[in-house]
User: What shape does this take?
Amino acid sequence: MVHAYVMVRTEAGAPQEVRDAVADLDAVSAAHVVAGDYDLIVEVDAPEVTDVLDVATDQIQGQAGVLETKTYVGMSE
Assistant: This one.
């Protein structure tokens, strides 16, 4: 299992709606609105790194209001 963190920058006023939408995705274990350079931190658990890529690029970036993502893959359990 691969655990990753996807940092998400959204349009102004959109963090709550994006969080609610991505929280319902199967691979998402948690989604938090945060303060800082990004608006959300989304935790993803997937069988393979390529599955994390699919979640980040297709499922999260495909949400209305998402401007940018950056993905960090956990290196330890």
